[in-house]
Design a protein that fits this description.
Helix content is 31%, strand content 25%. By secondary structure, the chain is an alpha/beta fold. The protein has one domain: 3-Layer(aba) Sandwich (Carbamate kinase). An 8-stranded mixed sheet has the order 5-10-2-1-13-15-16-14, sandwiched between helices. Helix 6 runs antiparallel to helix 7. The radius of gyration is 18 Å and the shape is globular. The C terminus is likely disordered.
């Protein structure tokens, strides 16, 4: 079993990924991102996203009703529909489900985001939640029919309302359910970079002992992502691969592999 988290950037090669999945039919679950499509739709609607920074320094996009609508249009609408279409054209039977379809993913609604506004600490209300339960029989029925599940936000809170959630949290939830399980993250970079401005500074292998230093050094969204990866390592390896390549899965050996144990060979980090 493998879980593929497809980044939401415009540069991810979905057609190449579909070709790889057609050639390699092992049991797979897709968690699909769509932040670039979401932001494009917000611009067309004359709306802007608001980024909040929590007290711990973690950035997140504030989710209000307008953002939930944009998520529905971008994730469950355009991105998911087009990707399922691309998979079908490649000969792969796929079915898209959002977290609220069939009660697939249950989340606990967040009280809000503690942040600083105009120099004052306050809690900003937010339509987001932390996933805690997945309805596995629904996915099992798809696997039994050899149908590839493509999963997106939103998810359902305690009242059945659509709320936002971090895709890494969805991946972690699925990974725990199917542990041990390999996670492949397709991103818009060659892998984890020692210097984000230098593609040649790729770090090929990372162990859990390396993670505290990497998390401390990382900034913005990468810090949040590495925190999530550190938790995922309890359930299996994680691979960062370049989703822009012609065949992202076939070429994922170029990226970064995260493991709990030390690799057999030592690889010096790029300086």
């Amino acid at each position: 079993m493998r879980i593929i988290k497809v980044g939401g950037g415009a540069g991810i090669n979905l057609a190449g990924l579909a070709q790889d999945l057609a050639a390699d039919r092992q049991e797979t679950l897709i968690v699909l991102g769509a932040h670039a499509e979401r932001d494009r739709l917000l611009t067309r609607l004359g709306e802007q996203k608001t980024t909040l920074v929590s007290k711990s320094g973690m950035p997140s996009v504030q989710t209000d009703k307008t953002m939930i609508d944009a998520i529905a249009m971008a994730y469950t609408g355009l991105r998911a529909t087009r990707f399922v279409e691309t998979l079908s054209q490649a000969g792969v039977s796929a079915c898209h489900l959002s977290g609220i379809d069939g009660g697939l993913i249950q989340a606990r609604r967040r009280r809000g985001i503690r942040t600083e506004v105009d120099g004052r600490q306050m809690i900003v209300q937010d339509l987001s939640g932390k996933p805690f339960e997945v309805r596995l029989p629904l996915l099992r029925s798809l696997f039994e029919l050899n149908i590839l599940p493509v999963i997106t936000i939103p998810v359902a809170d305690e009242r059945g309302c659509a709320v936002n959630a971090d895709n890494d949290e969805l991946v972690l939830l699925f990974q725990r359910a199917y542990s041990p399980c390999t996670v492949i993250q397709l991103i818009e970079a060659p892998g984890l970079l020692d210097d984000p401005q230098r593609p040649e500074s790729l770090i090929p292998e990372v162990t859990q002992n390396d993670m505290p230093g990497l998390i401390e050094k990382a900034k913005g969204g990468m810090k949040r992502k590495l925190h999530a990866v550190n938790r995922m390592l309890q359930n299996g390896p994680v691979i960062f691969a370049d989703g822009r390549l012609p065949r992202p899965l076939s070429q994922m050996n170029i990226g970064t592999r995260f493991t709990q144990e030390e690799p057999h060979a030592h690889h010096a980090y790029a300086q």
